[in-house]
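Hello, quick one for you while I still have it in my head. A protein chain has come my way and I'm curious about its shape. I'm sending you its amino acid sequence along with the backbone structure tokens. I'd be grateful if you could look everything over and explain what you see. Here's the protein in full, and shout if anything looks odd to you:
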Amino acid sequence: MADITPQMVKELRERTGAGMMDCKRALEETGGDVEKAVGLLRERGLAAAAKKAGRDAREGLVSSYIHTGGRVGVLIEVNCETDFVARTDEFQKLVRDLAMQVAGLAAVYVDAERIPPDVLAAKKAALLADDAVQAKPEAIREKIVEGQLNKWYKEVCLLEQPFRDEDRTVRDLVTEKISTIGENIRVRRFIRFALGEEM
């Protein structure tokens, strides 16, 4: 059995935000391999987050972000379960990061489920009518359109977008925060304003 040092536990805790005992157990289970322990804690965090997803989230924050120069602004509502969590620095930082994400990458919808059916139908029809898609065999056109829709979701849906320059999505970030904070967190709504933009 590998010798688990306090330094290893501390490093894992800093990387994942998990509790000390959870970090120690993960290191013991992975034989002291920090990378494997990170993966194990992420898996467990995702499982814990899935359990919390059904819980009611009616507290939270409405926050704003105005980009330098005042040309882009965002108003966002992010919900959690208690006002205690809503006042924590970690939750407030998450809300600010989400507002900055909306400002920077111009998300239009929270996730794919919230795209209005008529907008989705129009997008599918436009993709299917494209000459490049029509040139393909009929049997694979639907798969091509589905792939293009998934790419489009990453542009217009906040939770599907890559978070900053990282390998994770905004959804992954929110899920990690659910597991570290211990409450359900939901992005309820947002609006982005850009100076001179058409209504």
